[in-house]
Write a structure and sequence with these properties.
The complex is a heterodimer of chains A (252) and B (236). Chain A has 252 residues and is of the alpha+beta class. Chain A has 5 helices and 9 strands, in the order βαααββαββββββα. In chain A, strand 8 and strand 9 form a beta hairpin. The longest helix of chain A has 22 residues. With 236 residues, chain B is α+β, with helices and mostly antiparallel strands. Chain B is built from 5 helices and 9 strands; from the N terminus they run H-E-H-H-E-E-H-E-H-E-E-E-E-E. Chain B has a 9-stranded mixed barrel. Chain B starts with 9 loop residues before the first helix and ends in a 13-residue tail after the last strand. Classes of the chains: A alpha+beta (252), B alpha+beta (236). At the A-B interface, strand 1, helix 3, strand 2, helix 4 and strand 4 of A face helix 1, strand 2, strand 3, strand 4 and helix 5 of B.
């Protein structure tokens, strides 16, 4: 088993006296760990997992609904071709991640590192002005008691809101209210997503993640490696991205 | 039939997730448990080769390793277009630490050290654990992986990371130098100048391909800048 057993090393400050670990003064350091999305019995008595595709589709503007219906499931599914997925799909559908808290930021490293990437929630600054859109956007957070409120903007419009490939615009705005429940064994994430361009109104849903033993990928890696077989991956990607490129040329 | 990677794609991962069974681990001990050790947490940028950090300069390079004859012959015949780095594949920690413009972030918990690279596709992340031995597995897929199995310990204020269990898919340099599954990489992270700089020495040992162990050193400067989103583009 790939498990390291925590071992408390009780030691007084030595020559490095004040140089404690970065999380040492963080009251939320004990959130650190590996979490996986909770289902079934683990969420009995909690809010049920709603059908996100249905929920989102009901909020799409007509143009967004038309775009969703026109997408090519394989060619446009970025995660399927080893491109990033953005923060909307993997984390709320099959999310597995390390939660690494710090005084100035929280790092969320997803097991699907190639496609879901690493999110950094900055606790000591506001969103920069004139953000350039990126796959995972810019996330800032603050604590309201024991709840971490994360505000994310600055996303590009290449990712999808969920499996049905519901589109969003660069105006998309996500607010996550994150707190621990069940004596710290689980994290509850209440998510509100708004997009004045693509949605008729905001939608809200909840996901739960359970502190877990981290597991390896089928190949034994501590994270998933999307493109192990690079040549095959490349050919596969080119085949399906060809249609996307051709459409883009027509639009241009 | 779907190519192998497609099973790792988004849609498949959804189905796979349902099949995973997670054991409940004991909550990690508070990070303060290791307060006697230096705090390496932060973002670091490698200094240029002609620069000086805390009176020291970078030395050595993976391109200088000396290969055994058979390995040298394999390197000579390697198609450099198949360099994993060109194909957005992991390049392994030995080579990754030497990359120009390298930017890394270190995050520590009581049980593990995470080394995250700005170049996510090539560097991925190194997760190394304190207080355990290397994994023993009869399953080759578990025993030998792209990033290997890393364990960590402190040695008089220096974080020592020892990684074994690599598969042989990566190269030791951009010249096609192969390695075997016997490769061991030892990284030593030593803070300098009150933590403003980080000295990283990286040693590769592989009795099947290297004439002798090889060590290079890189110096990183702690920075307030953030890790940017870096999406790898496949190079034809």
């Amino acid at each position: 088993m790939k498990i390291g057993f925590p071992l408390c090393i009780l030691a007084a400050a030595g020559i490095f006296g004040s140089a404690a670990l970065g999380q040492a003064s963080d009251p939320h350091a004990d959130w650190a760990g590996y979490y996986a999305m909770a289902r079934g019995k683990d969420i009995e008595g909690l809010k049920p997992l709603v059908n996100l595709d249905q929920l989102i589709t009901a909020h799409l503007q007509p143009w967004a609904l038309a775009k969703m219906q026109a997408t090519d499931g394989m060619a446009d599914d970025t995660g399927q071709v080893c491109q990033p997925n953005g923060p909307f799909r993997f984390p709320v559908n099959a999310g597995r991640f390390w939660w690494l808290p710090g005084r100035d930021k929280v790092i969320i490293a997803y097991w699907e590192l190639n496609t879901a990437g690493v999110r950094r929630v900055y606790l000591n600054r506001k969103h920069p002005r004139n953000l350039l859109p990126t796959w995972n956007g810019d996330s800032v957070g603050h604590w309201e008691g024991d709840t971490l409120v994360v505000d994310t903007i600055g996303l590009n419009d290449k990712s999808w809101l969920f499996l049905g490939m519901e589109p969003h615009s660069e105006e998309v705005h996500m607010v996550e209210r994150i707190r621990r429940i069940k004596d710290g064994s689980m994290i509850e994430v209440d998510i509100t997503i708004d997009d004045r361009i693509a949605l008729t109104s905001a939608y809200n849903f909840t996901r739960y993640y359970k502190r877990s033993d981290y597991h390896t990928s089928p190949s034994g890696e501590p994270i998933n490696i999307c493109n192990e077989d690079a040549k095959t991956w490349h050919d596969y990607r080119e085949k399906y991205l060809k249609a996307v490129r051709e459409r883009a040329l027509i639009v241009e | 039939m779907h190519p192998r990677f497609s099973s790792r794609g988004f849609a498949a991962s959804v189905a796979a997730t349902a099949a995973f069974v997670f054991a409940i681990a004991a909550p990690a001990a508070p990070a303060a448990a290791q307060t006697s050790q230096p705090n390496l947490d932060g973002v670091y940028r490698v200094i240029p080769s002609n620069a000086v950090a805390a009176g020291r300069k970078n030395s050595g390079s993976p391109s200088e390793i000396k290969l055994l004859p058979e390995a040298a012959a394999r390197a000579k015949s390697a198609d450099l277009k198949e360099d994993p780095a060109r194909m957005c594949q992991p390049v392994g920690p030995f080579r990754m630490m030497a990359r120009e413009n390298n930017k890394i972030e270190i995050a520590t918990t009581s049980a593990s050290v995470f080394i995250l690279f700005e170049d996510v596709a090539r560097g991925l992340l190194q997760k190394v654990d304190f207080n355990r031995d290397h994994i023993q597995s009869d399953n080759p897929d578990e025993a030998y992986t792209w990033m290997g199995d890393g364990i960590a310990r402190w040695d008089r204020g220096t974080l020592v990371v020892e990684t074994t269990g690599f598969n042989d898919s990566t190269w030791l340099n951009e010249l096609g130098a192969p390695h075997s599954e016997a490769l061991k990489v030892i990284e030593r992270f030593r803070p300098l100048a009150d933590g403003r700089f980080l000295e990283v020495t990286v040693t590769a040992e592989d009795p099947k391909t290297l004439a002798k162990p090889y060590t290079y050193t890189r110096y990183f400067e702690k920075t307030d800048s953030e890790i940017a989103e870096d999406i790898c583009e496949y190079q034809e």
